[in-house]
Design goal:
seven-stranded mixed beta sheet, alpha/beta, four-stranded mixed beta sheet, 21 helices, 3 domains, Rossmann fold, 13% strand
């Protein structure tokens, strides 16, 4: 069964009969100019509120606390009873607000003292409250739909709070009997209807209001079970501030809320009274009891008194205003978030605390809620966030901390941009001085990358960080421009180091000889091999020239030249010669000098040798396959 608490539906019934127009007899001074009043001015007489006004203020305060702590799932149906019933709102969520109720009460107006009291009764409102509890709310309808439209599986509980001026205890019992009979009748009707739900449990809270200075005719009574579906309790309270305090305690007991004392420094009060001193003011806040469930379980909750309803005392716990700091001792674990409501909403300490909280954390100028701003901040802080600290360089450098802390902000000021630029200039100075960087050597052989490679990694990572926040604002672009400008001008010391390397010296010599490896795309090893082969070719060509001269002696170990070399010179390559071709040609030439050439290839004509030359006879006759000789 889907459980709905008794406080899910609360029907407020306020008596609007003529006797509610009687004065509460609690005077309120309206003359605020008693000291500065000139002579001859008649002072203003004090005024007092009526029982109706006291009932309306207390009931609306109850609704305010309910709506503050329970914005949903806790519904109020406000009913005014006189000669007829005035239902001011419904169970719909859009009707649950104090502004709409106050507007409807303004239309109803105060009770008419000249109206016939015989035709007015609070019974009309109690009957209408029972009928209203049988109606299905939106939340109950959703639960019935989820549970396959089975009304028996959804609990229907509610509460009726009646503010009236009873005549006696007998009158109170008559009101209770009327409510019980109405519940029984409405349950029979609801059993045969799809639009109504039987009431399974109802709590009736009767609050008898009487003027100050009079004796009460109604006795207080604790909660009593009148039947299996109805329980009742009676409170007899004097009007005025006594009624307000009593209903405040009832709100805490009926809604399962508790009070905490929150010390807060009220700046506005301190500036007016004691400008040079500091003072703390206690602000009472109402919130759900579950917020201190851990304290209740452990027994650490400070008890200010008994929790019995007749004593009116309540549980309290003192909270301390703590600004989060980096010290781990001052950081506390968060177990949940609960809504709060001030006890005295009109007091200056409460107003100061409320204004401070509203100015610090509700909707900002862009229309974003605190949750949306928190998500946006988390997204900015994790756009570039290395998961392993050994894989980052800039987050291990203390010099980059100012820039890393500012670049994640939503907006940058001119001072922030200047700080980021100074950080970049400091990095440039570190590179000029060749200061070591915290480069991780995990997984690498030797001492890791060289100094210039370390700074290249650092600059690339820094650019990646700034580019991740480039779309945030225009000033973020200025930081990236500064980094790009500083990277485009390498230090002179770095150029000198590059010129002093042996490898680059060899590359400079090859450039002077007209062998530019970058334009031809050849590697250094291929260039060296080609140079060796060209020198060997030059030596061979010189030997050929000396051999062809008539004065040159015949070489001792003369090796015949390949016919293929004389007849078929190597074709000129149309493009760069590969290393494999160069190496193959060199091996071929070297091997050709190490063996005696085939005699048939030496005497061949046009690379063709005649076979079976020994078969020729001395007389010039040839011998063929048929054995005949021919000339």
């Amino acid at each position: 069964m889907r459980m709905f608490s008794v406080s899910h539906k609360t029907a407020f019934v306020v008596d609007h009969c003529p006797y509610m127009a009687e004065s509460s007899r609690q005077p309120i001074e309206c003359d605020m100019l008693a000291k500065s009043r000139s002579q001859g001015v008649i002072p203003l007489a004090p005024v007092s509120k009526s029982l109706w006004t006291c009932a309306i203020e207390c009931s609306m305060e109850y609704c305010r606390i309910l709506y503050d702590i329970y914005p949903t799932w806790k519904l109020v149906n406000y009913i005014v009873s006189d000669s007829e019933v005035h239902i001011l709102n419904s169970w719909k969520q859009e009707d649950q607000n104090t502004h709409g109720l106050m507007a409807a009460l303004t239309a109803v107006g105060p009770p008419n003292p000249r109206q016939d009291p015989e035709c007015c009764s609070v019974l009309h409102g109690l009957v209408a409250a029972v009928e209203s509890l049988c109606k299905i709310t939106e939340y109950q309808h959703e639960s019935r739909t989820t549970l396959m439209d089975t009304a028996d599986r959804v609990a229907n509980r509610g509460r009726i709070i009646c503010l009236t001026n009873a005549k006696s205890d007998t009158h109170v019992r008559m009101l209770e009997d009327c409510v019980l009979e109405t519940i029984q009748e409405q349950n029979k009707r609801a059993a045969g209807s799809d639009r109504l739900m039987p009431i399974q449990q109802c709590e009736l809270v009767l609050v008898h209001i009487y003027p100050q200075g009079e004796e009460t005719l109604v006795s207080d009574r604790q909660k009593k079970e009148l039947s299996s579906v109805l329980s009742s309790e009676v409170h007899s309270v004097r009007a005025g501030r006594y009624l307000a305090g009593k209903l405040n305690v009832l709100a805490q007991l009926l809604m399962c809320v508790c009070v905490c004392m929150c010390p807060c420094v009220c700046v506005c009060v301190k500036e007016e009274q004691h400008a040079n001193t500091s003072a703390n003011y206690d602000v009472e806040l109402l919130h759900h009891r579950d917020a201190h469930m851990e304290f209740i379980k452990s027994g650490d909750l400070h008890m200010a008194g008994s929790t019995s309803r007749d004593s009116g005392l309540k549980e309290t716990v003192t909270l301390k205003w703590c600004t989060p700091r980096t010290n781990s001792v001052e950081l506390h674990y968060c177990t949940g978030a609960y809504r709060i409501s001030p006890v005295d909403v009109n007091s200056r300490p409460s107003s100061c605390l409320t204004n401070f909280l509203l100015n610090d954390s509700m909707i900002d100028a862009a229309g974003r809620t605190p949750v949306e701003r928190a998500k946006s901040q988390l997204e900015r802080y994790t756009r570039y966030w290395p998961m392993i600290i050994s894989q980052t360089t800039i987050f291990n450098m203390q010099a980059v901390v100012p820039l890393a802390n500012l670049i994640v902000k939503d907006t940058l000021t001119d001072e922030d941009v200047l700080t980021c630029q100074k950080t970049v200039y400091n990095l440039v100075d570190m590179e000029r001085k060749s200061d070591p960087l915290p480069i991780s050597t995990v997984g690498s052989r030797g001492k890791g990358p060289k100094r210039d490679e370390q700074y290249r990694i650092m600059w690339n990572e820094l650019e990646t960080l700034v580019k991740a926040h480039l779309c945030t604002s225009e000033r973020h672009q200025r930081v990236l421009d500064c980094i790009s400008a500083c990277r485009s001008k390498p230090p002179e010391e770095e150029e000198k180091k590059k010129r002093g390397r042996k490898r680059e010296d060899k590359e400079d010599k090859s450039e002077k000889n007209g062998k530019d490896t970058e334009e031809k795309g050849w590697t250094t090893d291929s260039e060296r091999l080609k140079g060796v082969m060209e020198r060997e070719k030059d030596e061979l060509s010189e030997c050929e020239i000396i051999k062809d001269s008539p004065d040159s002696p015949e070489p001792l170990n003369k090796k015949p030249r390949l016919a293929t070399e004389e007849q078929q010179p190597p074709e000129k390559s149309k493009g760069p010669v590969s290393l494999f071709t160069l190496w193959t040609n060199r091996i071929t030439q070297a091997n050709s000098r190490k063996h005696q050439e085939f005699a048939g290839r030496l005497s061949s004509v046009n690379n063709k040798a005649e076979l079976y030359q020994h078969l020729k006879e001395e007389n010039g006759m040839d011998v063929h396959e048929n054995g005949k000789a021919t000339r």
